[in-house]
Amino acid sequence: MKNEVKTCPAAHYDVCVTKIESLNKHTFEIELLAPEGTVLHYKSGQYLKLELDVNNDDQPLWLSYTISSSLDADKPNKVCLIIQVTSDFSGKVVDCLFAAKASNQPVKIMLAMGNAYLQTNINQPHLFVAAGSGISKIKCITEEILHRNPDASLNIYWSNRHSDDFFLLEQFHNWASAHKNVNFHTILESAQSGWTGRTGFLYEVIQQDHTNLKETQAYLCGSPKMVYGTIDQLNDLGLEERNCYSDVFEFSPRAEKLEA
Length: 260
What we know:
- It is built from 6 helices and 12 strands.
- By secondary structure, the chain is of the alpha/beta class.
- It folds into 2 domains: 11-113, Beta Barrel (Elongation Factor Tu (Ef-tu), domain 3), CATH 2.40.30.10; 126-251, 3-Layer(aba) Sandwich (Rossmann fold).
- A 6-stranded antiparallel beta sheet has the order 4-3-6-1-2-5, covered by helices on one side. Strands 10-9-8-7-11-12 form a 6-stranded parallel beta sheet, with helices on both faces.
- GO terms for molecular function: oxidoreductase activity.
- Keywords: Luminescence, Oxidoreductase.
- This is FAD-binding FR-type domain-containing protein.
- Pfam families: NAD_binding_1.
């Protein structure tokens, strides 16, 4: 089974909510700090679990969120995550975090989980494909790759339903401007008034830009339908599933195993 790799055992930490930044009208980046001297062990592309009493019923829930920050050697006790408010429940999650920040009450996290972390040869070309908040993983992995190899070849494709769903665009555009081999593409699922960018399925746009993905390493973040559909559609261009990494492989594996 793909992505069966060993990682460090998950550990529990008490952290403080030190910063909540609004990225757009319904997206927030949360900064969490463990006590000074703590070193949080995780790999770029992994996720954490956050314990919150979301329903205020003394029955806290463990909620999974992708880590959006690469490990900071100068601040190894820091970790960030991005939360989109798309429902009443996710709104309550953000409210809980604002309350924890205001009261300076620590919250519990468990990290790190997930096998779809950065583990590829960064000297090879990389394809990053994200839908919606899946860009959190891509941001984290991109940060680390460019830190280690500023000349890395990265092609980033990010799709949303609406133009105002995008966030951190300045960060990605800055990377594309500063690094000659970084290409960043924003896509809407369908044409909308005022949108002059690209539209369509992610795989369609990628097919327009590439003819050979044989040696490409790919990280895909989104629904199982998007991830498997994109891989299958790009197979004719040489993209091999053995060179693809996604959390979907863990929580929603294909019905049939890939041939060795």
